[in-house]
Amino acid sequence: MERREFFTALIRPIQKEEESKTLLRPPYFFDEEDFEKCSECENKACVEACEEDIIVIEEGRPSLDFSESGCTFCDECAKACRLDVLHLEAKRLLPKLTIDMLGCLAWQKTICSMCKDVCLDNAIDFAGLFNPEINDKCTGCGFCVGVCPTNAIRMGEER
Ligand code: SF4
Ligand code: SF4
Ligand code: SF4
User: Fold this and answer.
1) Is the minimum distance from the CB of 142 to ligand 3 under 6 angstroms?
2) pLDDT per residue over 15-48, tens digit each?
3) Which numbered ligand comes closest to the C-alpha of 95?
4) Which of 9, 11, 84, 102 shows the greatest Cβ crowding within 10 Å of its Cβ?
5) What is the location of CATH 3.30.70.20 in the chain?
6) Is residue 94 within 6 Å of ligand 3 at its C-beta?
7) Which CATH code is given to the segment(s) 3-16+94-155?
């Protein structure tokens, strides 16, 4: 059993159904409807261009997978897109993330700060050793998502 599976099994079942509904787009679009054009895109250049390898194609459209890495906002996907779906001018933050208190070890009195350790934006506040909360400095980059041993970091609201 993987470390993450072990911890998650201790606390609560993995909410696969809930997670599968969450599709995050690369942060360079004006309108969700523009992704309809992706069905005409043969080379899916944004996928190859991503330096962190986090763009995956779901139902013919690009979405972000934070399980192994996060978004550096490097602009390369937008530069590679030739069908005017992704634009540098549309660069935006990603939705702020949240911590599921029931799933988080540090909310359940077990020491863990793996999310804070990878956050370059100092966007996770702890009350002493426990009770982490994501603050407004969060860019939504997603680097904290894949390191959490209990899969407790969730998509927040769109900005
Ligand atoms: S390169 Fe542009 S058109 Fe092609 S899949 Fe990516 S976003 Fe869509
Ligand atoms: S990585 Fe962060 S959110 Fe995940 S269990 Fe540890 S303290 Fe909680
Ligand atoms: S998404 Fe990025 S900025 Fe926000 S808390 Fe996680 S690592 Fe920090």
Assistant:
1) yes
2) 444 444 568 999 999 999 999 999 999 999 999 9
3) 3
4) 11
5) 3-16+94-155, 25-90
6) no
7) 3.30.70.20
| Global model pTM greater than 0.85 | yes
**Which one is predicted more confidently, 17 or 157?**
157
24 lines ligand 3 (CB under 6 A): no
Q: Which CATH class is domain 25-90?
A: alpha beta
Q: Which residues of 71-98 are buried (b: 16+ CB within 10 A; e: fewer)?
A: bebeebbbebbeeebbeeeeebebbbbe
- From the CA of 32, the nearest ligand is 1
Asked whether 110 and 35 are in contact (CB, 8 A), the reply is: no
Q: Give me the amino acid identity at 22.
A: T
User: Could you tell me if the CB of 83 is within 6 A of ligand 1?
Assistant: yes
Residue appearing with tokens 């409807």: 33
